[in-house]
Design a protein that fits this description.
The chain contains 11 helices and 19 strands. The protein is of the alpha+beta class and 402 residues long. The protein folds into 2 domains: 12-241 and 358-397, no CATH class; 251-346, no CATH class. The strands form 7 sheets. It has a 4-stranded mixed beta sheet. It has a 4-stranded antiparallel beta sheet with strand order 13-16-15-14, with no helix packed on it. Strands 5-4-7 form a 3-stranded antiparallel beta sheet. Strand 14 and strand 15 (280-283) form a beta hairpin.
């Protein structure tokens, strides 16, 4: 990307100043690749009593079954002590557990060590979360991902940056004055989604963190935004399903293997193998093809996305734990998700090649933004906005003061 050095380029931390550390669950069983397993785990937990319930729960310094916890913003889960909880499982919600791996979470504050309520308050259909990955220079894979669902993880040292500071797509999380300054240089004021799309297209890891080269060239900007919007659509996966051209679309050539769980036998899901000559993923007796090498080799933070996706569904958990409760066979929904994931990774790999060749002329540097008074960013822009427009239920049903 000629025309600017990383030393000149603004930091993501300055362009999208409000950031939040990823939630910290403290235990693995409240998440699963399928919602039915979570409901089964909850049922086992609430049927247990006393020390058995506490042991199944997995107490930490932050949470036990006797912790008094406020309601998770936007969720109807209970606030009574978990030691006394009964009734049905709170309805699981979709979350991003790892790069490109959407799973399910029981949205109950009593189960989560550090839920980051400020994230839940702004999580709605209009929201987009930018997820920082590894900040190590030259690390393989994208430096920034995006998702419509609440992310539970980021890369080493990474942060979560909501595009909007308030629900309903209100108050963009952009440095004050940035959009107007870019508009004066480009000839039109970019939308918040345009800025995010450009960022996805050009973000690179740097010594100080993720850097985002900016341009005042309208043609280059338009090309970068178009590429970034396509990447955003592929990452969010909340609209029309992406497809590869005919002849390149992956199909199930042989059904995927059954999935014995720990506690029901000693076997677990076979490790996937990739046949480069046949461009096929082999899983036990199962076979999916064609799978482009670029999709299999797609990494984030140095880890193959597809290998990590399979590992999360391998079923290797200690018998007698809640995490050991899961499907007894490979669910059909997982096959559909896998085929879509292969498609998304293949298309993103093509986009990344295009983005790496994007010429950057007329750079907008950090020095320019400082001269324009945009940097340094005001301290208030790095703090969450006050979005409490209603009472939130506190521990034991008491309403929190606002």
């Amino acid at each position: 990307m000629p025309g600017v050095t990383h030393d000149d380029a603004p930091l993501l931390a300055d362009l999208m100043p409000w950031s939040v550390a990823p939630p910290r669950l403290g235990r693995g069983w409240p998440t699963a690749p399928d919602a039915a397993s979570l409901r089964a785990r909850w049922d086992v937990l609430v049927r247990a009593e006393g020390s058995e319930r506490e042991s199944l729960f997995g107490p930490t310094r932050s949470r036990t079954t006797h912790s008094a916890v406020a309601q998770l913003p936007g969720q109807p889960s209970g606030t009574g002590r978990l030691a006394r909880a009964c009734g049905p499982c709170p309805e699981p919600v979709r979350v991003l557990c790892a790069p490109f791996d959407e799973q399910w979470l029981i949205p109950d504050h009593r189960l989560i060590d550090a839920a980051r309520p400020e994230l839940w308050r702004v999580a709605d259909p209009a929201q987009v979360f930018a997820v920082e990955q590894s900040v190590v220079p030259e690390a393989p894979g994208p430096a920034l991902l995006a998702t419509s669902v609440l992310p539970l993880a980021a890369g080493r040292g990474g942060r979560l940056r909501p595009l909007y500071r308030r629900p309903g797509g209100a108050e963009p999380n952009l440095a004050p004055g940035l959009s107007e300054h870019l508009g004066a240089r480009l000839g039109h004021v970019p939308t918040p989604e345009d800025v995010l799309a450009w960022t996805l297209a050009v973000a690179r890891p740097g010594r100080e963190g993720c850097v985002v080269p900016l341009t005042a060239d309208p043609g280059v900007w338009a090309d970068g935004v178009a590429s970034g919007r396509r990447a955003l659509w592929l990452m969010r996966r909340d609209g029309e399903r992406p497809k590869l051209p005919g002849g390149r679309r992956p199909y199930v050539r042989a059904p995927l293997t059954s999935l014995p769980r720990a506690g029901a036998g000693d076997e677990v899901l076979a490790e996937p193998r990739y046949d480069r000559a046949e461009e096929a993923i082999l899983l036990g007796e199962g076979r999916i093809a064609p799978v482009p090498p670029a999709a299999w080799d797609f990494t984030v933070g140095g880890v193959r996305v597809l290998e990590r996706w399979f590992a999360a569904r391998a079923g290797a958990s200690a018998p007698g734990t809640l995490e050991a409760i899961g499907p007894g066979a490979w669910p059909q929904t997982w096959t559909s998700e896998l085929l879509e994931l292969v498609t998304v990774l293949a298309l993103l790999a093509e986009l990344r090649t295009e983005q790496a060749e994007l010429p950057l002329t007329s750079p907008v540097t950090r020095a320019e933004l400082r001269a324009a008074g945009i940097l340094p960013v005001p301290a208030g822009a790095r703090r969450p906005a006050s979005v409490l427009d209603h009472h939130e239920e506190g521990p034991e049903g008491q309403f929190a003061l606002i």
